[in-house]
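Dear V.,

Thank you for sending over the compound details. I've combined the ligand you provided, NAP, with the protein sequence from our construct and run the structure prediction for the complex. I'm sharing the raw inputs here so there's no ambiguity about protonation or stereochemistry in the SMILES, which I know was a concern on your side last time.
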Amino acid sequence: MSGGTGFPVPTWLIGCGNMAAAMVGGWKAAGLGFDAVTVVRPSGRPVEGIRTQVDYPVGDPPKLVLLGVKPQKLDEVVPALEPRTGPDTIIMSMLAGVAANSLAERFPAVRGVVRIMPNLPVQQRQGVTAVYGADAATVREVLPLIELLGMAPVCAEERELSVIGAVAAAGPAYVARFAAAMGLGGAGLGLDPQLAAQVAVQTLIGTAALADDTGESMADIARRVASPAGTTEQGLAVLDGPDGLQPLVDRMLAAAVRRGEELADAARRN
Ligand SMILES: NC(=O)c1ccc[n+]([C@@H]2O[C@H](COP(=O)([O-])OP(=O)(O)OC[C@H]3O[C@@H](n4cnc5c(N)ncnc54)[C@H](OP(=O)(O)O)[C@@H]3O)[C@@H](O)[C@H]2O)c1
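Below is the predicted structure of the protein with NAP bound, written out as structure tokens.
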């Protein structure tokens, strides 16, 4: 069980798509009960073990709202949700690129706004969820729920949350692409494509487990694999070259951060 951590009564999950469902999976794995929770989603598609409905619940205002819609849907949600919030409501938003002050303007009567930036491995309680809020007491209140899902760095500056988002929230997609590319590369060298893909994925899993078990840095692991003048060293020389991996990763992260800034601008203008 979770050492007494639970959902405030009542808690509303607004939207339960990919990301919110992954968080729900992590909370279920942590043994949390969902009696206090209602999911509101337009499809009404049931979320197993949780009251799910199309309309907003009647009765007391929510103590906690987890906003799990796409950023572009925010202004569809606000007119219905805002009047149902109260002075004890905490809005916890996972919307990429929508700044805390843009949210506070849309929900002027609530107790506080906390932004989170989770990643999909929260489902396995191996996630990274960056947390940011202007009010430290409000952050402290939601933090135990987030900590059940893995690493939960609290950001002093909102920009830090965007950067962690670019590295960790988007990260599973980047790591997955790299592993897929390794598999495709193996197939290009003549391996059966399915075997090549499996070998690449298991290498990813094994390397992560090795780092987790030993606490070794990724640099140390790479050093341990690459014996002087061996095959790995030749491969690393390509990755470490001037047109190698780091400049590519820098460009990739910069593109994601830039898109976050565009979304933030759009949310401010609306
Ligand atoms: N995916 C990630 O890895 C990731 C990582 C970090 C942050 N995020 C953030 O998480 C948020 C959701 O992303 P996602 O990938 O989970 O999207 P998604 O799978 O498309 O889920 C969106 C959810 O919003 C619901 N929804 C749409 N309109 C609504 C409305 N008017 N009222 C209530 N619910 C509504 C949908 O309901 P139905 O299911 O009924 O259609 C769906 O459950 C985004 O803001 C994104 O920036 C995602």
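A first observation: The beta strands are 11-14, 37-40, 51-53, 64-67, 90-93, 112-117, 127-128, 130-133, 150-151.

Warm regards,
I. M.
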